[in-house]
Amino acid sequence: MDNRRYLTIKERLKQLNGVFPMDDAVIEALPEGSKFVSIEHSHTSAYTITGRIMALNQNGEEQAYFLKVAYEEHGMTMLRGEYESSKMIHGFMNDVLPKPCAFGTYPFEDKVPSPPTCFYLCEFVDMDVTTAPDPAEFTKRLAHLHKVSKSPTGQFGFTVPTCDGQVAHTVDWQDSWAEFYRRLLLHICELDVKTNGAWPEMERATKQIADVVIPRLLGILQKDGRLLKPCIIHGDLWEGNMGINLKTGASILFDVGSYFAHNEMELGHWRCEFTTVFRDKIYIEHYLKNFPAAEPAEEFDDRNRLYSLKGAINYAAGHPGSMLRKTAYNNMCYLCEKYAPIDGIDKYDPTMDPVITGATITPHLADGYI
């Protein structure tokens, strides 16, 4: 087991003393004919160091690029996943996120005691990240992305591991969506136990969800002649990972960690406490006008509750002590009571359900490890 303690981004920034960790590898990755001019720090990030590059294109015109730098193998997994996700999405719909340019690594020299370092480079887009998107416009564009996407294998999964925050997804290709989601959820639940400790009742509920509820709620989507299209999803979609393009006025996504999934999986995050804007039912209502609920449609809300487990437990795994762990457990109890009653777990408590209470949290930049 690797017990090394990796530096946080705050600690790295302190070590750098204001100097951006730039390398010639980034300059070489700029589009052909570009001339590097400058680099400056950009917005704050929990898991990466970000910057804005100014360059001159081959016509001598200024062009801005956005740069992310990350460290160690997990940082490489995160940025490689974002690059491959962005490339895939851009190929389906070229105006829904900043155009990806490159993923690469800094050369490692034995004489320099620096950790393995990688970068992700894309176009820089001026955007408003404080204004809520128009529900009709945003959901129409999101549904269009889901509709036009096409899995390269016809299966659920992705070409490389991707991440939600610092947590890697399990994305091995699967024909069965129920099996894919089962593996994805169980992996995150294992990480949660490592972070937050054992909780026998939740672990019992988790097993019942995996063994009985998922096959019942999701297995039915591909039974009796029903077809379920694998759609590319953002993978961590809440209002903190999207903005409004100031040049075009259109909604735009960023920080993607994609995989091919049931399209409704995208909406699971909108049920979690870290989401406030998309918690408004108008967003799901408009989305379903563009991409109707799968059959059986009457089970949409239960599927949404099931899909929210991934977002809530993923957040808890990255933020020790988070209340979202209790929310996820309470939702598990609801689903078990309805579809697979079992002894040894608690009763569902509506006073702990954020959909009923309206409870929210303020997502924070973790001091966790990148």
Automatic annotation (TrEMBL):
Keyword vocabulary terms for this entry: Kinase, Transferase
Swiss-Prot/TrEMBL catalytic activity: N(6)-D-ribulosyl-L-lysyl-[protein] + ATP = N(6)-(3-O-phospho-D-ribulosyl)-L-lysyl-[protein] + ADP + H(+)
EC number: 2.7.1.172
Pfam family, one: Fructosamin_kin
InterPro entries membership: Fructo-/Ketosamine-3-kinase, Kinase-like_dom_sf
GO MF, one example: protein-ribulosamine 3-kinase activity
PANTHER family cross-referenced by the UniProt entry: FRUCTOSAMINE 3 KINASE-RELATED PROTEIN, PROTEIN-RIBULOSAMINE 3-KINASE
Protein name, entry field: protein-ribulosamine 3-kinase
Organism: Stachybotrys elegans
